[in-house]
Amino acid sequence: MDSRNSTPSRFFGRYWDSLACKCVIFVMIVLVFRAFCLPSYSGYGGTGQTKLFTFINQSPASITKQVQGEKVKFLEVPQIVWGLNNQKIAFARACLTARMLNRTLLMPNLSASLFYKEVELLKPISFEKVFQFDRFNSHCKGFVQLGRYGEVSNGTDIMELQKGSGRRWTIEKDLDQLRMFNKHPLDQYEIIRIVGKNPFLWRDHWPVKDYAKVFQCLLLVEEISREADKVVTRIKEIGLEERRKAHSPQNDLNLSLEQGPYVAVHMRIEKDWMIHCKKLEQRLSTKQICSSKEQIMQRVGNILRLKAKIPIVVYLAVADDLLEDNSVVSGWNEGLLPYEKKRLGVLDIYKKHPYLIQSAIDYEVCLRADMFVGNSFSTFSSLIVLDRTQKMIAMGITELCGMDVRWPSYAYNIGDESGGPHPWATNMSDLSLQAISYGTNNISCS
What we know:
With 446 residues, this protein is of the alpha/beta class.
């Protein structure tokens, strides 16, 4: 009797310390832990093993949010198209839409080419090829965030949002639609995918300062910044040479590259622009949109504070391939030294890049200029002035339109009483980006 009862004890005592027994017990513990602690990973249309693998491969930020019980949700938008600055506005509008829906914007594709009507000719380019992804999230932390598709845990948990269009689709209807997608049950989807038109043409619901916040987080990648450095350096070198010629030899040694100031003029005289602006003038019953080459040169030459700086390089930011008139460097006032890409000797820097990158380089060159002159109906010019206005505000400047402004800007399509271009600054208290998106002759400075 005692012998029979002691058999199990002897069995476990003999084999308890064996490796096989330990492995069996470990597997049992794992199975019990999975059954009680990881039930949520089998409820999204896949096996528990698959979802556990996806969870492990997510970014640390996403893992932290899910551990804390917060489901990471995303907004997906169509490929962003048109010119550089229209794309920047479209991107900002997509960011602000994601912010309103309490979502992370999945990093969208930009477009390297300008063929926005022939969709099949569009060349997508990654956001990261133009702007710094990590720096964007760092600068805009707590405001808006970008996410990667690798962070999505369930690629089928999608709800499509069809953007309305046409005259009947009002701002109020668009806002109501967004509010609806921010409520239960639509807000439970991991991805809301917006389908329809380009984000640049979405309804606008946000003030200028919100757009400006997004723009401040957009930093060009180092490669593009270095290309812009080369162009700016070349401009300053030429300006410095001319200033040395105009000064006495005693002052030559005191001049440095930083003392080679330049003016940037965004000359909108390309054939496509002239067709567009003339139609726009007819529709709006105004004569303050189109400007000829002669009018631009005359008004720039009449800038009072410019006359004290001559000789000075005037960099002409113009789309060379679309020009019908090759004489843009002829006819300028004495002391104004006009240079476009070819004459400057930097055409090769631009030609090796697609259109979008070329525009980004030109934008940076204009932004850094001591003085900028553009067209108030141009998105390119408008966003440069917005950036320059932000610079002045950051420097504590309150008078944005005075004679001694550090980063002065002008609109050559609107004349002032002296025959020069009108001073221009962005009204940061505007409640929408309507003026900057579609052009205006209301340029803040009175």
